[in-house]
Each structure stands twice: as C-alpha cells, then as structure tokens.
Amino acid sequence: MDANTILQLFPTPAREVALNGLYLGHDLRRQHEELGRPFVYTNYVVSIDGRIAIPRPTGGGMMVPQETSNDRDWRLFQELAVQADCLISSGRYLRDYAEGKAQEILRVYDEPRFADLGRWREERGLSRYPDLAVVSGSLDFPIPPFLTQEGRKVVVVTHGAADRQRAARLESEGAQVLRAGASDVSGRQAIAALGELGYRTIYMATGPRVHHLLLADDALDRLYTTVAHRLLGGQPFSSLVEGDLLQPAIGLRLHALYFDPYALDGLGQQFVCYGR
Ligand SMILES: NC(=O)c1ccc[n+]([C@@H]2O[C@H](COP(=O)([O-])OP(=O)(O)OC[C@H]3O[C@@H](n4cnc5c(N)ncnc54)[C@H](OP(=O)(O)O)[C@@H]3O)[C@@H](O)[C@H]2O)c1
After folding, report:
1. Which residues line ligand 1 (CB under 6 A)?
2. Residue 102 sits in a domain of what CATH number?
3. What domain range includes position 82?
4. What confidence score (pLDDT) does residue 71 get?
C-alpha cells in the first residue's frame, strides 16, 4: 500500500482502493432514480468519542476540531459535494462566513487541488457549483454577493413564523424564501419543496440540529462518517445529531467501510457509510 490507497473492509472481500475517486465511485447522482424523490445524504468527521465540534479557542461559537480535520477527509467531503444539485447549509454558516470564520465550502473548485472536481461537473453538463439551500429560523445573515452574481440560486428554507421583513431583505439580496413548516422547519416539507424546484441529489452539509430535523422526518437516505482515531473529551461539544429522542430510533445498514492508515500522522481513520 501507499498513501494514495486505503483498505476497503466492506463490502468484502477486503481490497486496496484508491482514495481519490472513492466517493465519486458511489455514483450518488443515480440514487434518486429508484427512490422517485430526492436522494439526501450527509457527512461528518467525528472523534472516537463522538465530537464533531468543540468551542473555538478564541470564543464565539463552535468549530470542527483541528485534531480530527485533515486533507484526506476533506477530499472525500468535496467528492460528496461535487455530486450534488444543491447543498444544504444554515444561517449559522452564513453568519460565520460573513465574519471570515467558516470553513470554505462555497467556492473550492478554483483551488488547484480540487480543479479535477470542477471539470467533473463540467463534463456532465452541470453548473459550476451546486445551488445553495440555507436552513434558518432567524433569517439573520447576509447572502454572500458573489453567489448571486455568479448566477447561483440561493434558496432560504424557513418556517411560517419567521420574520417577514428579514425574509423580504433576503429576497432583495437575490434569495428565494420558502416556508416549510408552521413554527419550525419540517425536514419532510423542506426536502419536498427542494424536490419541486428540481433538485434530485441533495447534500446536507450542516450540523446536528438540521441533521435531526431530517432524521425525525425520515428524510435522510445516507450517512457518511469519518471516524478520526482520536479521543477529545471536553465540554461542551456537538455530536452529529442533537435534539429530542428519536422515536423510533433510526436503524441504518452498513453500506461501506474503509480503513485509511495514513491519516493523522499514521493514527488512521475509518470511512463508514450507512444507508437506510
Ligand atoms: N465535524 C463535522 O463534520 C461537522 C459538520 C457540520 C457541522 N459541524 C460543526 O458543528 C457545529 C454546529 O453546526 P451548525 O451550527 O451548522 O448546525 P445546526 O446545529 O444544525 O444549526 C445550524 C443553524 O441551522 C438553523 N436551524 C437549525 N435547526 C432549525 C430549525 N428546526 N428551524 C429553523 N432553523 C434551524 C439555525 O439557523 P438560524 O440561527 O439562522 O435560525 C441554526 O443556527 C459547527 O461548529 C459546525 O462547524 C461539524
């Protein structure tokens, strides 16, 4: 083995596979065909003790821990994102983005290391970037002007009780505002509304509460996790789903499992993919 490869442990038999192209090979743009509705998937990098985010050392919110984030996971995150018609983000992300403290997910194909992914979309006749859906109750964030200047569609998904003046401001900044749910965003209604806009392959790239609202409504089809081989401890922290007890509990089946021995200075990490 060398650093370009990882070990596929499931499906069996075990074999070496290339890291680059791994999740492109999952062919996510075909998945909606059997479902007859949008295919919705998400991805988290998580420590062994279940942490996806810890407080920023400088204060002011949470961040992905440096001890779990790494380039090999980030490559696979981008391979999932590139396959989407639409990325789901959040009001929190765009607030952080405006302050320059969010991890860049909105314009990555200009980076030389991801130029092949830009070409991947171009070869398939797709727009340069997926459109953006922003889940928010507060509606308190700006739309980054470059998004609409480049002709990308920005859909804000909120609920019936959300502030009308703020909704009007976001519309004046070029967004389309959808109300999916009465006093809270409903996962089922949100995905149905995005489906009506023509999105078939939807990548949910935000945190544990948006994850919960999709799970609670049975609106998530596939969960990717990268388990970084570190324990972090500490309070407070975010796990990959937060909210009320899920009743019934959500059962998932193992779709694929890989061991990457080269990540994190040789500690390694597992890429685990679950389906419904
Ligand atoms: N390790 C990883 O792979 C990973 C992945 C994703 C996120 N994270 C980290 O996890 C932390 C938390 O993530 P997050 O803040 O994006 O996720 P979140 O807890 O799911 O919530 C994000 C935002 O979504 C909106 N929202 C959530 N539930 C809503 C509902 N029911 N109705 C209406 N709006 C709702 C809210 O926006 P408004 O406040 O505008 O109403 C909220 O601030 C962050 O530090 C992030 O970096 C880590």
Report:
1. 44-45, 52-53, 62-64, 90-93, 135-138, 140-141, 184-185, 206-210, 213, 238
2. 3.40.430.10
3. 5-275
4. 96
* Rounded-to-integer distance, Cα 49 and Cα 132, Å: 31
Number of structural domains in the chain: 1
Cα gap 117→24, rounded to integer Å: 10
Nearest CA to ligand 1 atom 13: 207
Q: Which atom of ligand 1 is nearest to the CA of 213?
A: 31
CA of 267 to the centre of ligand 1 (A): 29
Among 81-95, 118-132, 143-157, 167-181, the range scoring the smallest mean pLDDT is 143-157
- Asked if pLDDT for residue 63 goes beyond 90, the answer is yes
Cα distance between residue 57 and residue 212, in whole Å: 26
CA-CA-CA-CA dihedral for 67, 203, 276, 220, to nearest 10 = 100
Residue owning tokens 């407080």: 55
CB 218 within 8 A of CB 252: no
- The answer to whether residues 132 and 147 touch, using CB atoms and an 8 Å cutoff, is yes
Q: Which of 87, 105, 135 most suits a substitution to test ligand 1, by most atoms within 8 Å of the C-beta?
A: 135
Both structure tokens of 26: 């999952």
In degrees rounded to 5, what are phi and psi of residue 242?
-140, 135
Residue 256 contacts by C-beta under 8 Å, 6 or more apart in sequence?
8, 10, 11, 26, 271, 272, 273
DSSP 172: H
How many angstroms does the Cα of residue 209 sit away from the middle of ligand 1? Answer: 6
